[in-house]
Amino acid sequence: xxxxxxxxxxxxxxxxxxxxxxxxxxxxxxxxxxxxxxxxxxxxxxxxxxxxxxxxxxxxxxxxxxxxxxxxxxxxxxxxxxxxxxxxxxxxxxxxxxxxxxxxxxxxxxxxxxxxxxxxxxxxxxxxxxxxxxxxxxxxxxxxxxxxxxxxxxxxxxxxxxxxxxxxxxxxxxxxxxxxxxxxxxxxxxxxxxxxxxxxxxxxxxxxxxxxxxxxxxxxxxxxxxxxxxxxxxxxxxxxxxxxxxxxxxxxxxxxxxxxxxxxxxxxxxxxxxxxxxxxx
Length: 281
Description:
Blueprint: H1 2-10, H2 13-28, H3 33-53, H4 67-80, H5 82-85, H6 101-110, H7 132-143, H8 163-173, H9 175-178, E1 185-186, E2 192-193, H10 201-210, H11 225-240, H12 254-280
Helix pairs in contact: 4-7, 6-7, 6-10, 8-11, 10-11
């Protein structure tokens, strides 16, 4: 014991401090401290992710879906959709519908795109084959097969948002395909971005969260539900207010305007020139 004390006393002061500090640290750390820290980090990470993704699906105003509604939707599905999508909706000639959600079915069937009229680069809009009630039955049946985006709540699609913010978001995310005024545009291989005039707010929202055909998916981490509402508000504003610049030529932009100038403007100048020359002769 006296030898240990003499050795310790003969150590430099700085080394003594380091040894004492390391002893204190070793004494404080519990063997499970690292595990506890990892678990705490996972809890906070999971909680943050759940908070962000909880709004990723705009839930409809809680309208309980009865088993009877789902059964009616199953009958409609088997009679009208199973040829392409299979009796269990896992796909046949068409894709699987497991996990697409009620919003996808409500958009595709509610706009008449499904059932498809004919095979082609993309499904064409046509009058819906089913009533609104039958569309909802089909949607809730498919939703019962796996989780997916739900039909949006009314307050997100009624056009009560900020049109100015919606215009900016639309120009950044949508105008390259749909045109800045939502007039639509051509894509590759016979595909096209449809015009958004006359499209309901519900279907615009559903298209953003499901990404039909060539459209990308804009989940709530890309564009929040409130921002989607602002985009719908902007489109409704454009539809309800005529262009202040006069005749908008289908809102197709400078190409249509340039063609008008060349065909009618330059043609008128040539016609006047010929008339003046003929009269002078």
